[in-house]
Each structure stands twice: as C-alpha cells, then as structure tokens.
Amino acid sequence: MIARAMNTRGDDGLSYSDLARRNARVERKIRVRTLRRLVELVEQDTEIEVELAFRLDDEGKVWITGQTFVNLDLQCQRCAQVVRHALDNAFEMCVVFGEQRADELDDGRNLLVVSAAEITVSEIIEDELLLSLPQSLCTQDACDRLPPLDYPVPLTQGVLPLVGETPAMENGASVVTGESTRPFEGLAKLIAAAERQQSGEEQ
Fold first, then answer.
1. Residues 6+ positions from 47 with CB-CB distance below 8 Å
2. Taking the alpha carbons of 156, 160, 161, 166 in that order, is the dihedral positive or negative?
3. DSSP category for residue 138
C-alpha cells in the first residue's frame, strides 16, 4: 500500500530523516477534525492517541513504526444507529521521497510517499486509520439494539401427525400434541395389518 503525504508545514511538522537518525519516538494527541477524510465518516470529534518510532535501516531508508488508539462513533449497519467502536491500530511504513522512488520500491512494503523534508502526524496516520475502519461494524461489535433473529418454536408447532391419526380439533383448528416421537409407528401398524390380512386370505 502506498500512502501519499502532501507538502504541508506547520507546528505539527516532523523532520523524519532527523528523527530516524536519532531513533526518536514521538507521542501526540490530535483531533479527528484534523483528518479531513476521516472526519466525514465518524459522528464526533475526539482525540486520537498516537505513538511513532523512527529508525534507519541498513540501506539508509527511513522507517516509521506507529500505534494509534481512538474511540469512534460509527453507524451500525443493522440498527442504523451510532455504536462506539475502539480502534487500536499498529502499522509500519517506509518513507520515500517522490513518486519515481516509490515506483522503484513498490515491492509489497507499506510506503509513505513524501515531497518535503517534514511531514505531519495527520499525514502519517490518516490512511492507516481509514484502512482500519471496520467494513461491517455489526459483525465486530455487539449491538444492544439489534432485535433477536430467531424465535423459540412452541412444542405444539411444526410436528406432523402420525400416519393414520387425525389431529384433535380445538375451536375449529387442528392441534398437534406432539406427544409421540415415533413418526413411523402408524406405517408399521398398517404394514402389519396388511400382512395379517394376506395370511388370512392364503389360508
């Protein structure tokens, strides 16, 4: 996956090369509203806890290992109401400068393409957060407002009468008591009666 960071400078700007040379760690708390794409998908503005670790590999490439945590209010697909979802996400990415270099290194590793010497925390984490959002929230978190999907069936329902038996009548409707659990008992009686009749005729 390739994430692209815009050439944005400001108070949140991080010199990733310098931080990697020093094996530095960065801890920040940023608001959801600073992530313009994520804020369109959630129901509130809240803090995102961010931890970032920078390092250089043997080839001199900058790597960022990160961890984010945030409680988001997302819409449940079953009850169509808002459900609180804890998003705890870990990631690792290689920082590359420019699109051409990204194409050369696009071998399956997670890349962050930059066009400046500094990047913001928001630029580092937004794509990772978007990819971590549940595609079907109702399958990951229990929904207290979801009605039961199955109902108990009374014993007197769904039981067929035995062969040769006539269901009892109650208020003009047939009622099956379900007292017997031997569905072929009536058939056995009919076969036995037919055999006795045949034996009598042969005599």
1. 29, 30, 31, 32, 70
2. positive
3. G
Assigned token pair, 94: 């290689």
First-to-last CA distance in the chain?
A: 89
**What are the E-state strand segments in the chain?**
2-4, 14-15, 25-31, 47-56, 62-75, 82-97, 111-114, 118-119, 168-170, 173-175
Dist CA 2 CA 92 (whole Å):
12
Query: Is-contact 161 101, C-beta < 8 A?
Result: no
CA distances from 55 to 3, 10, 68, 157, 179 (A): 18, 23, 18, 68, 74
pTM of full prediction above 0.70? no
Query: What are the tens digits of pLDDT across the range 23-81?
Result: 999 999 999 988 988 888 886 789 999 999 999 999 899 999 999 999 988 877 777 77
Two tokens at 82?
Answer: 């808002």
